């Protein structure tokens, strides 16, 4: 029996758990562990921006925005049972049998593939400072492949003097939660669990199995787990890019990309799959915009030579470039339409509908509306931003009064598929603009082109090569 197995056998089953990072991953994780194990410490830095969460959690209140079914009840339940407590005292880590870490890993500079691991490193150091023999350490953040077995293992060894995989267990179990269904996702999604060695994987399986309801454990090594997480988002980004490229082709060939999409999607049957997603005004969020670069960096720092077509860039990075081009395409469509209307950017008011990156949400991280806004204002246009869910972004004022935004607008540009934009009425909008031939640019396929063309609009839509050069009525 290995040294680690002997230590773990002597320690017995996992009873006390620590979760570092009381965010939208850590909080549901901690309270679900608290339901199944004896006690959970929820660690949170007493920082200016997030320290307030400690008191809220200990008062049984969720500090997360938006609806999270079941979460607050569960916080109250485990608090009343004395099975959960949030603290900024990281020395309590010495009391636990397992500790997980869910801290954001943004990129400083995507161009240089340079992630900002500052907060993550601080969390890992805190664990190392208070790490005992036989403890299981699990990283849940989305990280560059190789981080667990190298970066994290080195820091933990440096801080604790203990040997990863021999004196303590170390694994990666990537989070797959989506806002609005955090508890359900943790319980029902299959859980990827990857240890730096078999003993570590086995101990991590013991930690995660009890919180799964429908979900199954899928175990592998830690680097495979890191690649799984980054690749599952890279593949989604790639599928979106495939549709965005097809939309651009259809515009050039003057056909309707949605006819083609329906056609492709009709091919079904045994073993036949076509993941046809949707073209659009761009890809935002904090998952798809960065995970490709984590994957790329992983293979870059892996140390082994990659066999790949000479002078060819990564398909995945090209997909990112295509998706990041879409706001520029929206700018080009706007310019074409303004020219047809005999107008220039300078002196034109543009109503930009949708600032959130996701339909019917207030999440605006990496929104594609931002680069479009920057290009338009730089070209001299006056842009009024409307969003029913977002009230401000830094010093950018965002209107909730669509009338006010559309009043006197030369162009109405739809960036987000919010439900409020699904039944815009052509006649009412035209009246509000006061223009004989107002422009409408549909970035999310939410309006009927013919209804607007009939009213005298100049219409442009992503992928609508069949309509984009229509006669002006
Ligand atoms: N988008 C398109 N076309 C599509 C789908 C999305 O242009 O067909 C755009 C959206 O407008 C948005 C961006 O892509 O700007 C991202 O949309 P998303 O639906 O992927 O939402 P995210 O960024 O919240 O992705 C999360 C991810 N979940 C986790 O990381 C745990 C992703 O893996 C999920 O697939 C996705 O949610 C989901 O399916 O809801």
Q: Report the strand count.
A: 17
Q: Would you tell me which CATH topology of the largest domain applies?
A: Rossmann fold
Low-confidence stretches: none
Biggest β-sheet: count, sense, barrel?
8 strands, mixed
Distance between the termini: 82 Å
Give the CATH H-level superfamily of the largest domain.
NAD(P)-binding Rossmann-like Domain
Number of helices: 16
CATH architecture term of the largest domain: 3-Layer(aba) Sandwich
Can you identify the CATH class of the largest domain? Answer: Alpha Beta
Which strand order do you get reading across the main beta sheet? 3-2-1-4-7-8-9-10
Helix content: 25-40%
Structural class: alpha/beta
Q: How are the elements arranged and paired?
A:
Elements: H1 3-11, E1 16-20, H2 26-36, E2 39-43, H3 52-58, H4 71-80, E3 84-87, E4 98-101, E5 107-109, E6 114-115, H5 118-129, E7 136-139, H6 147-160, E8 169-172, H7 182-188, E9 191-195, H8 198-208, E10 217-221, H9 222-252, H10 257-265, H11 291-300, H12 315-340, E11 349-353, H13 369-378, E12 382-386, E13 392-393, E14 396-397, H14 402-406, E15 411-414, H15 426-433, E16 439-442, H16 449-454, E17 458-461
Parallel strand pairs: 1-2, 1-4, 2-3, 4-7, 7-8, 9-10, 11-12, 11-15, 15-16, 16-17
Antiparallel strand pairs: 5-6, 8-9, 13-14
This protein binds ligand SAJ.
Characterization of this structure:
With 473 residues, the protein is of the alpha/beta class. The mean pLDDT is 96. The protein folds into three domains: 213 residues, Rossmann fold, CATH 3.40.50.720; 86 residues, N-(1-d-carboxylethyl)-l-norvaline Dehydrogenase, domain 2, CATH 1.10.1040; 137 residues, Rossmann fold, CATH 3.40.50. A hairpin with a 4-residue loop joins β5 and β6. The protein is 39% helix and 14% strand. α2 crosses α4, α5 packs across α6 and α9 packs parallel to α12. It is elongated and about 80 Å long. The strands form four sheets. Strands 3-2-1-4-7-8-9-10 form an eight-stranded mixed beta sheet, with helices on both faces. The site of ligand SAJ has 17 residues, from α9.
């Amino acid at each position: 029996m290995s040294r680690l197995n002997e230590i773990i056998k002597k320690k017995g089953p996992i009873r006390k758990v620590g979760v570092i990072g009381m965010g939208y991953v850590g909080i549901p994780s901690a309270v679900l562990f608290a339901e199944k194990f004896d006690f959970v410490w929820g660690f949170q830095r007493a920082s200016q921006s997030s320290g307030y969460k400690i008191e809220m959690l200990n008062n049984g209140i969720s500090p997360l925005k938006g609806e999270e079914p079941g979460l607050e009840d569960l916080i109250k339940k485990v608090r009343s049972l004395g099975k959960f407590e949030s603290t900024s005292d990281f020395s309590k880590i010495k009391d636990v049998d397992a500790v997980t870490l869910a801290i954001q890993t943004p990129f400083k500079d995507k161009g240089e593939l340079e992630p900002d691991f500052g907060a993550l490193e601080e969390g890992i150091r805190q664990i190392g400072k208070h790490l005992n023999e036989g403890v299981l350490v699990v990283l849940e953040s989305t990280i560059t492949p190789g981080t667990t077995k190298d970066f994290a293992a080195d820091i933990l060894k440096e801080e604790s003097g203990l040997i990863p995989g021999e004196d303590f267990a170390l694994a990666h179990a990537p989070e797959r939660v989506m806002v609005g269904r955090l508890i359900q996702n943790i319980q029902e999604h299959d859980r990827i669990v990857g240890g730096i060695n078999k003993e570590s994987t086995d101990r991590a399986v013991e930690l995660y199995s009890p919180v799964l309801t429908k979900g199954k454990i899928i175990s592998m090594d830690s680097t495979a787990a890191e690649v799984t997480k980054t690749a599952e988002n890279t593949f989604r980004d790639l599928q979106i890019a495939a549709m965005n490229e097809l939309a651009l082709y259809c515009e050039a060939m003057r056909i309707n990309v949605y006819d083609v999409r329906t056609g492709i999607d009709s091919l079904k049957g045994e073993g036949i799959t076509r993941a046809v997603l949707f073209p659009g005004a761009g890809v935002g969020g904090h998952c798809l915009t960065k995970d490709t670069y984590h994957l790329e960096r992983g293979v870059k720092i892996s140390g082994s030579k990659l066999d790949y077509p000479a002078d060819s860039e990564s398909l995945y990075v090209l997909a990112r470039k295509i998706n990041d081009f879409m706001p520029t395409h929206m700018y080009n469509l706007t310019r074409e339409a303004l020219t047809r209307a005999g107008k220039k950017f300078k002196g034109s008011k543009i109503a930009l509908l949708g600032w959130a990156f996701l339909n019917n949400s207030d999440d605006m991280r990496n929104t594609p509306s931002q680069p479009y806004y920057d290009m338009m204002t730089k070209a001299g246009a006056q842009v009024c931003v409307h969003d029913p869910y977002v009230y401000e972004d830094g010093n950018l004022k965002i209107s909730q009064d669509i009338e006010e935004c559309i009043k006197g607008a030369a162009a109405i540009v739809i960036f987000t598929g919010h439900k409020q934009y699904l039944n815009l009425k052509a006649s009412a909008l035209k009246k509000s603009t006061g223009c004989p031939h107002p422009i409408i640019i549909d970035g999310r396929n939410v309006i009927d082109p013919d209804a607007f063309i009939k009213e005298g609009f100049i219409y442009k839509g992503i992928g609508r090569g069949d309509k984009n050069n229509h006669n002006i009525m």
